[in-house]
Amino acid sequence: MPRTASTAQSPTADRPGGSPLADVTASDSTLRRFLHGLPGVDAVGLEARAASLGTRSIKAAAKAYAIDLAISMVDLTTLEGADTPGKVRALGAKAVHPDPTDRTAPATAAVCVYPDMVAAAKEAVAGSGVKVASVATAFPAGRAALDVKLADVRDAVAAGADEIDMVIDRGAFLAGRYLKVYDEIVAVREVCGTDARLKVIFETGELSTYDNIRRASWLGMLAGADFIKTSTGKVAVNATPANTLLMLEAVRDFRAQTGVQVGVKPAGGIRTSKDAVKFLVLVNETAGADWLDNHWFRFGASSLLNDLLMQRQKLATGRYSGPDYVTVD
Cα(109)–Cα(49) distance, rounded to whole angstroms? Predict the structure, then answer.
């Protein structure tokens, strides 16, 4: 059951180093005061910096490294009503060996599926080190009672999910019911226990303002998120350089204040190697090299993988093989 305001304590207090921010979740009013006391976002400055970092060029050797790093950060995903165990097993095989003709290509970070497909995904990636992530909490809308959401999470964890991607209640957040959103994240965190890392999805395209994205980032981290994630990939506006930059600033500042490191996952709309490299530059220049690892940064962009593989083949052979030389997801 979610804790009441009178017994509030941030889960970050139990993490290494504790949390000097635990008292801000003591009540609805203290949480609201803290979130609305965060510095306002200069939208023009944020977008200008994101655009400027996106123009950085890198040398060929660095590009080869960046492409392999990006491949290792992909959460290869299928979240369709027509998903079958066979499709999930094929996706798992691709995650383990993205390029069957070149076993030097790194595996992806994870396969992400619905809870009822977790067992098939676990079987497909067994022994590889590839994680199995599962969306939960009535993904993608999040419109369900808390007990239903928690049952969703329990099913995924019981089936062996290594990671849970939950969606926040955007309606509650936009109505200013921050403690309700906080409590739901805490409750999901408790169900995950030590068995699964928790990614908290904000659906930034529905939060309307950069100020709201900053507030949601801090709210998710205070509640115990292991990752904060931009989007479900199911709405018109998903990950952008600007909203990802803003979230990278948040995790950087959160670690500076608490000693707790939290990952970032932009999801949706990242389709090319050029896009991926731009995002890696954002990571390096904003949060720092500590986040340039798939334990702390992921791409939720399955279509991205094929372009990364084609660019990798071009760097190795000097020829652009084209889409017919990579498997269709």
Answer: 28
